[in-house]
Fold this protein.
Amino acid sequence: MQDIELYIDGERVDKFTDESVSITQTIQNVKDISKVFTDFSKTFNLPASKKNNKIFKHYYNFDILNGFDASKNVNAEIYLNYVLFRKGYIVLEGVDLKNNKPNSYKITFFGETVDLKKKLNEVTLQNVFNTSTEYDHDYNIANVKTGLTTSLANGNIIYPLISHTERFYYDATTDVENTRNLHYKSPGTGTKNHGVYFTDLKPALKLSTILDRIEAYTAETFDAGLIFERTGKSFFNTDTSSADYNELYDKLYLWLAREKGLLGKNYTGSSENRIVINSMTQPAVGWDVDSPFCYRFQNNYPACENSRITNGVWRIKTVNITSFNRPKINFSTNFKVTGSGGGTFSISIENITDNTTEAFLGGLNADGLTEYTLSASSLGNQFNYTEFRFVVTSTSSAFLFSTNIDFIKLFTEEDANGIPTTTTSTSTVVSVLPTGALQRIVVSDQMPDLLVLDYLTGLFKTFNLTAFFQPDGKIMVQTLDSYYLGGNSFDISKYIDVNKSSVNYAAPYKEIAFRNVKPKTFLAINFSEINNRIFGNLENSTTVNGINTTDRGSKYVVQTPFEKVIYERLSDTTIQWGYSVDKDEKPILPSPLIFVNEPTTATANPISFIDGNSDGQANSITTYNRPSNSLTLKTINFGSEIDEFSLTVKSNTLFQDNYFTYISGVFDSKRRLTKLKAIIPLKILLNYSLADKFIVNGITYNINSIKTNFKTGESELELINNLQ
């Protein structure tokens, strides 16, 4: 029998004498990142004692001022035999009355990680990067070329050779202008420009960087943030000097393809420089700054309501309230560009609301003119936000310009007689930008639409990972095999209730299936149609890798949120690329794509890259970031497939490396599920993990689940005989 104590805000509460605490732990919990955050919850009924009435400030009495606030979480702790068992918080559910007098308080205790899960349920990868700009960069020739040949941001950003629109090919016999022929031909008389245009590529972000931002975001947003262990046997160990360095994880990247097709949709080729005006002074005259990037008319209704100017995007809400003495507000702008350096240029005011890109107004100046002005009125819709940006496109790489943007607010208010009075406020925003800043890549805007928990769960399912909190509060994430290797052994033979036990059939599954999402891309769809299966998936109802499945149980399905792309190695070259288009070779918005980055040398057949040099000729690159489904002998396919680059079968699949031991044990004919009851001492109950093994009468068992009543000290055990 254990002594159970509950403290609320540091004060011990009175309990009913028969109050118990139970907790169930199962191996399935460590295989699901979301369940790591559902540590423990328990509902208590507490007597309406004098002490408890004081703690809860007589909540049943409506008339008490400054009473207990049941809408708030209150810090709490549970102790077992004077040893801290769980920290967390309580919420007050209500008070039960008898004969109009308080009888008991009903509260729920939540472990400290439960609240974190509730908060993370709404957090997307986009949210995580909203507060970070360190990986944002200009989308221009120089940066894309660097990202393709090496990397940006200390290896965290690359531009893999994955095309979102155009088909790449390699032909040493033809020389056609403006094609995606990657064969490089030394400049000479009559040489045509062809190869990779920088606008053909999109960036990718290192997975370890995403984990960094998840940690930083939770630390910035919540009282206690997540911290993942990165040393030792951690799956997230990217220390190249460590014996436990995880090279595969270190080379995994997420392709940033939230937009379909071209980034900067009006861009037509390297002969143009498309510049989004993203460096501007703040509006001045007649504007009141409520907060950064938030502006409203001085001393008048309404407030700005989150209008903003950031990264070249203006977010404006037009308000039109016609009731008495209410204002009508309209916005307009004059967009004036003064250019030099020759060539034509065009300017536009683009409506990008709802991720569309349509010009409110646009025009092309006559060659030789140095100025062009657009005027737009009535920007925005009543009570709705409108987002727009100012864009300059030039045909000359030498083009320089300055801009004047007159941003005008027309404020109309009726007097007591209904006569309107209009006030005009004009602010001039000045910007001078260098040429070549095509567009700013804001990483948060390019992240796939994916919840943080779904992303982490996808990784857990892909690599059969486990997670648990260490004593220092860090979350250790390991493969299931590595997790079991770190366990201890406890002989609990003398604590077993010998009067009752059972040995049961243990195989819970009859089929297995490991799946990524249905492919949308050209080559993967063709593969499915020809082979009647999905590339990289693994499912079989009879025999898999020598494992005999059964006739009983349910289907074991592992489903990730990620898509699989089949890459293509161009004949007789060291060039491999990806083609992210549909069957009709039209741009698509793929599901989240994770790939292995393999920096590759292409000296024998360099890649032609259109870099906009003054000589007008393409340049060669001899190293590039090759997207792949494989790393050396390993592959990120669940099943065995022919590696696109080496044309050999990679046997170290996700299933073989991460699931085989577990699944083979599940289907082993010698496997049994033994159910026992035991009175296990507290020194074991407070220190064991599901990685540990229990020894009973000389037989070693893995722990499937433990349900413990800490009031009685009795545990119900489900143990699986260890077959190794």
